[in-house]
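To whoever picks this up:

The parser on our side crashed when reading a file containing two proteins. I've narrowed it down to the boundary between the first structure block and the second sequence. Both blocks are reproduced below exactly, byte for byte. First block:
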Amino acid sequence: MSRTLMLYRHARSDWGQAALDHERRLDARGRRDARSMAVFMSACFAREHCQPEQILCSTASRTRQTLAVLADMLACPPGQILFEDSLYLAGCEQLLQRVRRLEPGLQRVMLVGHNEGLQQLLELLCPDAPCKAGGRLLATANLAMIRLDADWHRIQPASGSLERLVRPEELGSL
């Protein structure tokens, strides 16, 4: 049975703020990109019947802000979104272990988080994925949709197929 793992990197944040890293908020471009991506995903999920059944999100302010726009558009019911401290700056191995612990009945799951962990997980699961954005697969506000033909707990390196990689600046051409 095929499963879909969506990796959504937070939109661009404001490095000029004096706040702690965990509390950094989106800058103007980040808010604009988060909205563009939310509009795209909302339409795509409705058209292709591929809305995530569960969304796991880092507790950082910038990930929460990035997700908030999408969650409003999708009208996510209570319990669909889980905020997890362990996803804040999680490395590839931590993310992989979390994916392996997903409920077996779930078919489509989204992780909203940070690099380098998300990009490394994408590279681990899909080693043939083409690089974009100056050698980066996941720049800010990018979404990767990965098809996996295994149960969550059986996912191994190179077991995924990158079905779609969406960047906000490319949305006008889609």
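<<boundary where parser fails>>
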Amino acid sequence: MYIPKKPAKYGLKLILCCDNKSKYLLGAIPYVGKQEPPPQGDLSLGHYYVRQLTRPYHQSNRNVTVDNWFTSIPLAMDLQSNCGLTLVGTIKSNKKEIPSQMRSMEGRIPGSSAFLYDDYMTLVSYAPLTKKGKSSKLVHLLSTMHSTPTLGDHGKPEVLRTFLMELAMELICPWAQHRLTRPTLSCELVALIRSAFDLPSQPPQAAQAPEREVALLHNSHFNPEKRCRDCPGTAKKSNVANLLRRKWLTSLATRWILLITPPNSIGLEVHPAGIRDS
């Protein structure tokens, strides 16, 4: 499909359902465009995807966190009444169910929140506090998990805090896990990352040895001194790139010569460091 606002404008779109704690992929549905007849029937497309992906977990009292492409009042009611699931997500301001008073910026103080309740649903209208001390737009959130107007330490509603925390964990955790593979990472930072993202802890020696072996395998010039082993101790760092380029060109020339002519017919001897006349 084609999405002009994305960095990669063309590609395949997959709707994923993932566990927020373990980051395990629970299910996926490919987006194949408009179909006739529509598989969702009278449901919106976002409602259909959420209903299908969460089907194995109905009546499990879990929470589903989604963005404003999925969130709607009918979806929240359906999950709560028929599926045994709660919902937290941002919702578009142009939804017909949102009262005009919750969409108006008139009289709103930057950093303030307005709450609206209807049975088991909570609608929050939050005016973000910008660096200039003004709010240019309102953020609306819908929740069936929260029932009280709770504010966090920074004055933000707890509904928004829950949504942002789950979104941040989803975005940051893969990069944090990748960072643990760095062989030069300090033990304090390793312990902090493992505790922050609830990752299994390992003994320092057992955890560091395989990572160091992987680093040595993929980088033959790695050493604790952070200097190329083929350069003398007083060599400039700018010479490292030239040395690697020279070694690469030498090995490339060796392979090319061996492909077109047998070594013995042209009087050359092949050595690990390159070639030379015999």
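After patching the parser it read the second block fine. The longest strand covers residues 25-30. Residues 180-218 form one domain.
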